[in-house]
Automatic annotation (TrEMBL):
This is Glycosyl transferase family 1 domain-containing protein. Keywords: TPR repeat. PANTHER family: BLL6006 PROTEIN (PTHR46401:SF8), GLYCOSYLTRANSFERASE WBBK-RELATED (PTHR46401). InterPro entries: Glyco_trans_1, TPR-like_helical_dom_sf, TPR_rpt. GO terms for molecular function: glycosyltransferase activity.
Length: 738
C-alpha cells in the first residue's frame, strides 16, 4: 500500500510513479529517470521500476548508469528474465560482447521462449565458444587493463606508498582520469580465491589514491572504509570481462601470486589479451645477496615465464631495460624481449601543488621546521647501504663535533637485512641523537621535508631508477648519489656523485655540501636552470602511447613461441634456485587451461576434469611418429584417469586408460605413441571426478587427477633419449651442488 507523504509538498509513491511514467511517455528521459529515482527512495524493492529507470537512462545516453540500474533490478529479482535481458542489451551497446552473451544466456535459462533474448544470444553465439579471438573491431577503443593486485595486498596493511606502489597509484590514477584518445582504461586485481581478476571501480581506485597521499594512519576511518570496500570488491565482484585484443598492464609485482601466468595464458588464448609488465629492476637475479632467498626464487620463476610470454615490456630505466634484455636473451635467445623505457622523472612538487607547503609534519621523530638536516628516503635494508651512511655520520661527528653536523633524517621502514645498520644505530648514543629514523610519512609531509632539507643522500648498491633522487631534484634540493646503476640516469648532470663503497669520498662530498653554503647555492641554481621533470600524467600518457603504438604497428613482428626440443627432458615442477632458466619457463608455459594446480617442488597435480599440455615443436621436426614420456604420480585412493597425445593437425588419438593403485603415492612412467602432424603436440589428461587429497582437520582437501613431474618428446627410434628418460625416472640422478 502507498504510504502518505510527510511534510509540505510531499507526494505519495503512487503519485510519484504516475508522474515518472508521464515524463517517460513524453520522452523527457532525464526528468523521468530522476522521478523514478525519487519513487525508488520510497519503494526500493520495486525492481520493475528500476528497469524503467534503466530504460530512461539508456535513452538519455548514459548506458553505464542504465546498466547499473538493470543490475540492481536483477539483484532484487534474480529470477527475472527481463532484467537479465536488458543487462545484455546494455552490455552489447558498450561493446562487452561476452558479458552480453552471458546475460542473454541467463535470460534464456529463466525463460527459454524469450524471443528477444534468443535473438541477442544468437547474434553473439561465437563468443560462447573457446575459439581464440585476437582482433579488435575497427574503431573499437583499445582496452588497457591495469593490474593492481599487489597494490591491493599492500594497502591491506600499509597506507604510505613505497616506490613501486607510488608508481602504480599515480600512473593508474592518471590513466583512469584521462585516457588518451582511442584507449579505454580499467583497474583490476587478481582474486586468488576465484582465480580471476575483479574490477576496481574508477571511483574506488581514485579514493584509495587520494587517501594514500594525505595520511599515514592505517586505522583512520576513511582509510579503513576504502580498504574494506576493496576486500568486498574482490570477494563479491564478478569476473572481469576482457575486451577482445586488450592489454593487461602489470605495473607492480605478481611473482608472489601462484599460477598467475596460467591465468594470463588463459585470457591470452580466449580473448587475445596481450601481457605487458613494467620491469623495475632485476636485482633478485643480479644482486641476490640483498634479497630474501624465497624472493630470488619466485622472481627467477616469474622472470623466466615473463620472458617467454610477454608481448613486450616496459622498464623504468635504460639500465633495467639492458639487464632484462640481456638475461632474457641468455635463457631464450630465439625470442628477443622488446623493452621500451619509461623514465620515472616525475615532479613530486608539481603533483602535490600548494598543499606541500602546509605539510610540515609535527612528529617527535622528525626535525623541527627551522632545524638543519639532510634527508635520506628509502627502506632501511642492506641494498640501500645505510650502514655505510651511518659510519659516514660517525666520521663527521668525530671530526667536527656533533653540534656542527646536521641531523640525518631517514624516511623508511626496516626491510630485509637491516640488522647491521640498525644495530650500529642502537649501539651508538651519538647516532641516535643525530640520526632520526621514521616511517609512515605521507606524501604531503614528505614534500615538506624535501622542501626544507639542506640536500639529500642516496647510497644504494643497486637501483632500478632512484625515485628519491628525482623527488629531490623536483624540490630543487641537491641529491648526493652513489655513482652506479640507474642512479646516474635519475641524477643526470645535476646530482653530486661519490664513488660507490668509498667511505672517504662520501665523507668528503658530505663535508663540501654541509659546510660550503656558496657551493650549495651554486648547485641549486644548476638544478633550477637545467632540470626539467614531468608530471605523473605525462608519464601515464607515455605508458598508454607506447602500448597503443605497439598495437597499431603493422610492421611489428610477434615474438616466436618458445619451442620444446626433442629428446630433452623437461621438469614440470618448481626447480628452485635464484637463476632465470629456460627450464623454469617451460615448466610454466606448457600447461594449458585452468585444470592445473600450482607447480610444487616435486611436480604438479592436474585438477579433476580435463587438463592439457600444449607442446610447441619446431615445424621442421613435425610429422611422422612421435613418442611422449610422462613421469607420473598416482594420488592415494585414485581409481583411473585417461591420457592421450596427438599432433595439433592430426585426428586425436583414442584415450588410454591408466588404472591407479588404491594406496597411491607410486611413481610410474607413461609412454604414448602418436602421429605428430602440426607444430604443436596436445596432451590431454582426463582426471574424471578427481581424488580428494590433503583432507585433514575437517577440510575438503583438493581434488586432483594425476601428478606429472617431467616429460619428454622423442622419435621412437631415439634409443639414447628413451633410455636416458627411463633411467632418470627409475634412479635418483646425483647432481653437483649449485
Amino acid at each position: 500500500m502507498d504510504q502518505p507523504g510527510h511534510g509540505n509538498g510531499s507526494v505519495t509513491s503512487g503519485e510519484a510513479l504516475h508522474q515518472a511514467d508521464s515524463l517517460r511517455d513524453q520522452g523527457m528521459w532525464d526528468a523521468a529517470a530522476l522521478a523514478y529515482r525519487g519513487f525508488l527512495e520510497q519503494r526500493p524493492e520495486d525492481w520493475r521500476v528500476r528497469v524503467q529507470m534503466g530504460h530512461c537512462l539508456k535513452e538519455a545516453g548514459d548506458i553505464a548508469a542504465a546498466l547499473a540500474a538493470y543490475r540492481e533490478a536483477a539483484d532484487a529479482a534474480p529470477n527475472s528474465a527481463d532484467a537479465h535481458l536488458h543487462i545484455g542489451h546494455a552490455l552489447k551497446m558498450m561493446g562487452e560482447g561476452e558479458g552480453a552473451w552471458r546475460a542473454y544466456a541467463r535470460a534464456l535459462e529463466l525463460e527459454p521462449d524469450n524471443v528477444e533474448a534468443s535473438r541477442g544470444a544468437k547474434s553473439l553465439a561465437f563468443l560462447a565458444s573457446s575459439v581464440l579471438r585476437h582482433a579488435r573491431a575497427p574503431g573499437q577503443a583499445l582496452q588497457l587493463v591495469f593490474d593492481s593486485s599487489d597494490l591491493v595486498a599492500y594497502v591491506a596493511h600499509n597506507r604510505t606508498p613505497t616506490g613501486i606502489q607510488r608508481v602504480q597509484l599515480n600512473v593508474t590514477a592518471r590513466a583512469l582520469l584521462d585516457p588518451i584518445e582511442g584507449v579505454a582504461t580499467a583497474a583490476v586485481a587478481f582474486d586468488e580465491a576465484s582465480g580471476f581478476w575483479r574490477e576496481i571501480s574508477r571511483d574506488l581506485f581514485l579514493r584509495l589514491w587520494r587517501l594514500s597521499r594525505t595520511g599515514g594512519e592505517v586505522d583512520a576511518p576513511a582509510w579503513v572504509e576504502v580498504v574494506e570496500e576493496l576486500r568486498e570488491t574482490l570477494r563479491d565482484g564478478s569476473d572481469f570481462v576482457f575486451a577482445a585484443g586488450s592489454t593487461l598492464v602489470n605495473l607492480g609485482t605478481s611473482w608472489w601470486i601462484k599460477d598467475y601466468f596460467l591465468r594470463v595464458r588463459h585470457v591470452m588464448r580466449r580473448y587475445g589479451v596481450r601481457y605487458v609488465p613494467l620491469i623495475y629492476d632485476c636485482i633478485p637475479l643480479v644482486a641476490p645477496e640483498h634479497c630474501q632467498p624465497l624472493l630470488s626464487e619466485e622472481f627467477a620463476q616469474w622472470f623466466s615465464s615473463m620472458a617467454a610470454q610477454a608481448e613486450s615490456a616496459l622498464a623504468i630505466s635504460e639500465w633495467s631495460a639492458a639487464d632484462a634484455q640481456r638475461i632474457a636473451g641468455e635463457i631464450l635467445p630465439e625470442r628477443a624481449l622488446s623493452v621500451a623505457v619509461v623514465r620515472l622523472d616525475a615532479d613530486l612538487r608539481q603533483e602535490l601543488g600548494v598543499s606541500a607547503s602546509e605539510g610540515w609534519p609535527s612528529r617527535p621523530d622528525l626535525p623541527e621546521p627551522q632545524e638543519k638536516f639532510v634527508l635520506c628516503v628509502g627502506t632501511i635494508e642492506s641494498r640501500k647501504n645505510h650502514l655505510m651512511l651511518f659510519h659516514a655520520w660517525l666520521a663527521l661527528i668525530r671530526r667536527h663535533g656533533a653540534a656542527r653536523v646536521p641531523r640525518l633524517v631517514c624516511i623508511g621502514k626496516a626491510g630485509w637485512l637491516a640488522d647491521a645498520a640498525m644495530t650500529l644505530w642502537r649501539n651508538s648514543p651519538v647516532l641516535q641523537e643525530r640520526v632520526s629514523i621514521a616511517h609512515g610519512v605521507p606524501d604531503v609531509a614528505l614534500a615538506g621535508l624535501y622542501g626544507q632539507a639542506m640536500f639529500t643522500v642516496t647510497n644504494s648498491f643497486y637501483e632500478g631508477w632512484g625515485l628519491p633522487v628525482t623527488e629531490s631534484l623536483s624540490f630543487g634540493r641537491i641529491p648526493l648519489v652513489a655513482r652506479n646503476t640507474s642512479l646516474t640516469e635519475a641524477g643526470g648532470e645535476a646530482a653530486v656523485y661519490f664513488e660507490p663503497e668509498n667511505l672517504p669520498d662520501l665523507v668528503a662530498k658530505l663535508e663540501q655540501l654541509i659546510f660550503d653554503e656558496a657551493e650549495r647555492t651554486r648547485l641549486e641554481a644548476v638544478i633550477r636552470d637545467t632540470v626539467s621533470l614531468r608530471s605523473w600524467g605525462a608519464i601515464a600518457d607515455q605508458v598508454m602511447r607506447v602500448i597503443a603504438g605497439r598495437h597499431g604497428d603493422a610492421e611489428a613482428v610477434a615474438a616466436p613461441p618458445v619451442r620444446l626440443e626433442l629428446s630433452t627432458i623437461y621438469p614440470l615442477r618448481l626447480t628452485g634456485g635464484g637463476d632465470a632458466e629456460r627450464s623454469k619457463a617451460m615448466a610454466d608455459i606448457i600447461r594449458d587451461g585452468l585444470a592445473w594446480h600450482p607447480l610444487e617442488s616435486w611436480g604438479c597435480w592436474t585438477r579433476h576434469g580435463l587438463a592439457k599440455l600444449r607442446l610447441p615443436i619446431d615445424p621442421a621436426m613435425a610429422g611422422g611418429p612421435m613418442r611422449l614420456y610422462l613421469s607420473c604420480l598416482a594420488p592415494a585412493g585414485g581409481s583411473w584417469v585417461r591420457v592421450r597425445a596427438f599432433g595439433a593437425n592430426a585426428v586425436p588419438e583414442p584415450y588410454r586408460r591408466i588404472v591407479l593403485e588404491a594406496e597411491g603415492g607410486g611413481r610410474f612412467a607413461c609412454v604414448l605413441d602418436f602421429d605428430s602432424a602440426g607444430d604443436e603436440v596436445i596432451v590431454e589428461i582426463d582426471g574424471c571426478e578427481g581424488t580428494a587429497i590433503d583432507v585433514r582437520d575437517g577440510s575438503a582437501g583438493r581434488l586432483v587427477g594425476l601428478g606429472v613431474s617431467a616429460l619428454m618428446l622423442c622419435r621412437p627410434d631415439d634409443l639414447r633419449a628413451r633410455i636416458d628418460f627411463l633411467e632418470r625416472h627409475a634412479y635418483r640422478a646425483l647432481r653437483p651442488d649449485r
